[in-house]
Specification:
The chain is of the alpha/beta class. Helix content is 43%, strand content 20%. It has two domains: 28-237, 3-Layer(aba) Sandwich (Carbamate kinase); 325-478, VC0802-like (2-Layer Sandwich), CATH 3.30.2130.10. The strands form three sheets. It has an eight-stranded mixed β-sheet, with helices on both faces. Strands 12-13-11-14-16-15 form a six-stranded antiparallel β-sheet. Strands 5-6 form a two-stranded antiparallel ribbon.
């Protein structure tokens, strides 16, 4: 191998600092994947790696399924799921280490499965899945994977230390979607991890899991392992944060929709944050903000194809005025509000107070002199939100929408892009076209059933059509009597 074709990666490092390597679930899904991780870590040893790992692929979903089944009176179904998880982790562990080491490892893992059995019984007895209990269920996945990876690295000859992530990541008490407390997390992570690094050991810890100041376990929400890695990277002043996944980097769109999707070599922090916010699955939205805070480069890399080059996310965009990617966020709803004249000036404040009470966020807002429209993730409490708002304004709402978003630095300054977009999807029911205040997004709503078609058409226009053809189309549309 050519060291990840990585002299460019390594050039971002600063002497004496560490690199945080975060491995997602598909990167540790089985014994073969974990062996690949060992090789990738080996190639980073001189950069003092800190390894953060997700649960094995699909394990968090299975744990959540078991937790919900037990709360619905199905402890036996939950225990069957737990047993399947026990067998899977046992198989992976046996393939990675010798018999004697396996018995030592399993002595550490078996109590976690016993705890899951106990939690299933307790949850079935109460008939309710409390948020703090759900956190205890789901946090087991990262405990298991980090212990297995720790054992595999030991077996491979690394000087490695397992770290309980609850000692590093300090959060508020918002169970199932806790927010890390920045200063506490920075202080704790430095106190715990710096001595390990200074001793020459390689720390391994699970992502996704934290604890309150009082030590009560929490989780950071789905995809929170990325956020854990970013918080630790910033706390340790890492030279870079690497997010290892199963794709070659951030792509121009979902390759499942467009097989000709391309790898983006460089993104700005702001572009990456917009992509994450509008539905791109490669990065968790909370990953970018901590790295931006200390200007630490983030790399998105493929553990199955480390030579692909990946995507580097840095402070400043490499190209201005060009669409970098297209994303579609499904399962959104739009809420239209027409205020009574006496309520118009105070309506926005009251609306956002209603959303705050329901702990529901707004994705996008579009205003006019008649009222405004809110785009949000569809939720079971949407009818209740609408009912509460009816005391303030005339309310209409629709489900089954998708928010399609084009992202690129300062694309809002190029009106021909919006014209090209509207021309390509002119036969669709498009509404709520919005160019963000940042000038780096152009977004619109379509029917959810046509979202994939819209993305494919736009991707062909923006990434497959030769530039001179696209520019010619724009000129035609701007001429008198043109299409738009």
């Amino acid at each position: 191998m050519n060291q990840l074709s990585n002299e460019s990666h390594e050039a971002t490092g600063r002497r004496g600092e560490c690199v945080v390597m975060k491995f997602g679930g598909t990167s540790v899904e089985d014994a073969a994947a974990i062996r690949r991780v060992s090789q990738l870590v080996k190639r980073r040893l001189r950069h003092r790696p800190v390894v953060v790992v997700s649960a094995l692929a699909k394990v968090t979903d299975q744990l959540l399924s078991a937790a919900r089944a037990s709360s619905e009176g199905g402890p036996q179904s939950a225990r069957e799921t737990v047993e399947r998880l026990r067998q899977r982790h046992q198989t992976v562990a046996r393939e990675l280490v010798e018999e004697q080491q396996f018995h030592c490892l399993w002595a550490e893992l078996e109590p976690a499965f016993q705890m899951l059995d106990d939690l299933a019984g307790e949850t079935a007895a109460t008939g309710a899945l409390l948020p703090e209990v759900q956190d205890r269920f789901l946090g087991v996945g990262e405990f298991l994977s980090s212990k297995i990876l720790h054992a595999a690295l030991l077996h491979a000859g690394f000087d490695v230390a397992w770290i309980d992530s609850k000692e590093c990541i300090v959060t508020d008490a918002a169970h199932t979607r806790a927010t890390p407390l920045w200063e506490d997390t920075r202080t704790r992570s430095r106190a715990v991890l710096l001595p390990v690094l200074q001793s020459g050991q390689l720390p391994v810890l699970g992502g996704f899991v934290g604890a309150t100041r009082e030590g009560i376990p929490t989780t950071l929400g789905r995809g929170g392992s990325d956020c854990s890695a970013a918080m630790i990277g910033v706390g340790l002043e890492a030279s870079r944060i690497e997010i290892w996944t199963d794709v070659d980097g951030v792509m121009t769109t979902d390759p499942n929709l467009c097989p000709d999707a391309r790898r983006i070599t460089t993104l700005s922090f702001n572009e990456a944050a917009e992509l994450a916010r509008f539905g791109a699955q490669v990065l968790h939205p909370a990953t970018i903000a901590p790295a931006m805070r200390r200007n630490i480069p983030v790399w998105v890399l493929n553990s199955r194809n480390p030579e692909s080059g990946g995507t580097e996310i840095v402070a400043h965009a490499s190209e201005i005025g060009r669409v970098k990617a297209i994303t579609a966020k499904r399962e959104v709803a739009v809420l239209d509000l027409e205020p009574a004249p006496s309520m118009a000036s105070d309506l926005p404040r009251q609306v956002f107070e209603v959303f705050a009470r329901h702990r529901h966020s707004v994705e996008l807002l579009s205003a006019s002199h008649h009222g405004f429209s809110l785009v949000m993730s569809a939720a079971t409490d949407l009818p209740a939100i609408a009912q509460e708002l009816r005391g303030l304004a005339n309310v209409r709402w629709e489900n089954h929408k998708a928010l399609v978003c084009l992202v690129g630095e300062k694309i809002g300054r190029r009106p021909e892009i919006a014209s090209q977009v509207l021309h390509v999807i002119s036969d669709m029911d498009v509404r709520l076209i919005c160019q963000g205040a940042s000038e780096r997004t152009i977004s619109f709503l379509v029917e959810e059933a046509r979202a994939e078609e819209a993305v494919r058409r736009l991707h062909e226009l923006l990434f497959s059509t030769p530039a001179h053809v696209a520019e010619g189309l724009a000129r035609v549309m701007y001429q008198p009597g043109g299409t738009c």
